[in-house]
# Entry
Amino acid sequence: MNKYVRRLVALVNIRENVDYQTADTTIRNGIAFKGPNVIILACAIIIASVGLNVNSIPVIIGAMLISPVMGPILGLGLGLGTEDGQLLKDSLKNFAIMVLISIIASSLFFLLSPLNLEYQSELLARTNPTIYDVLIALFGGFAGIIETSRKEKGTVISGVAIATALMPPLCTIGYGISELKLVYIFGALYLFLINTIFIALATFIGVKLFKFPAVEKADENHQRLSKGWYAVIMIVVLVPSIITAFNVVKENNFKINASTLVKNNKNMGKSFIYDYKANYSRKSQTIDLFIAGENLTDDLREKIYTDAETYGIMRGQIRIHEDATIMRKDISETEIMKSVYEHTDRQIKALNDSIVKLNSQLVNYRENEIPVQSVAQELFAQHPQITNVSITRGSSVAVENDSISEQIVAFITYDGKMDADLCNQIERWLKVRLKNDNVLVVEAE
# Structure
């Protein structure tokens, strides 16, 4: 074996740090649900329900930290891995008690709670599980069994309890029961089953990898049947979550594209997009654009459609409403004024930017302007025979260092014949006076 491979194997090898006896005892002690564990579970459920009810993430995290719900789930994985039938039965029994107590406590809380937020985002977030929740549960379960098994304990279990989020789905089931909404009940139940099954699966895999000693040796037919059932259960759980994740990604991309389309076409002449709604369902996806100001011209409409197609949005998916204040009955006067002010501010900013740009161009022009009148008067004073001076900018020419410099041409009318020495003298003077080495003096007829 290559020495680098051996180093890598030694680096990730954790069997030497596994304490089978302590891990086995810890998991078995955490399974039982009686006495203090029941009271702690009920308290944790109420705390989590309050947190979900008021959309308080710190409260929800606190409830997950004190909850003892991980015990029976780890027991399921250990019982399967060590082929301990009695441990498996005890874990299932206490798991059922845990679920029942949690649902009853959360249902009673939400039935009695006077608070009902308009949009309870933390509750609704537990009703639409995806494949990502499967990954969280699986790797959270791996971290949990590794932490439980290693000799030197850390704080990983607390993090696993937060990441895998077993408590909030149970509370959401209670909320669904109190509101008689099957969508919430089954959505949250599905998320809870995902977390339970894949945490137990990760524990089972960890027990096998660490080679925990088997308690009972089942016959080969029984093992084959059990593995078949595990595979069926995982497929049944996985497939809907993958489909949901695919739809979530599609919906997110559609809404991002809709937002970008609106941002790039916010102001259109004397019209602007006042508001928009991205409507997504599995059967149809549409965007409602609410326009304020003057009606859109055909060219502006075509521009919106063309831009939309670059984001994968078809013409038929866009619905343009010419009068936002009439079409959107749910828009308040405050929102109307805010949007008008924002539109006005954008126009003022655009005008100010144009003024600043024009002023900068004017300053540059004045800095580069040739003082023809003063130069002509100075030449007249020095050379009385000069009767007329005309100075203009010629074409750009290359100088020695490969840079480009603009040439200045001076047309001078002289009373008599201007010799070469005088011409060179005037040229040298003009170079100094105009601060430009590219000056050409031409005698005009």
Summary: The longest helix spans residues 220-264. Residues 46 and 106 are 6 Å apart (CA to CA). The two ends are 97 Å apart (CA to CA). The chain has a mean pLDDT of 76.
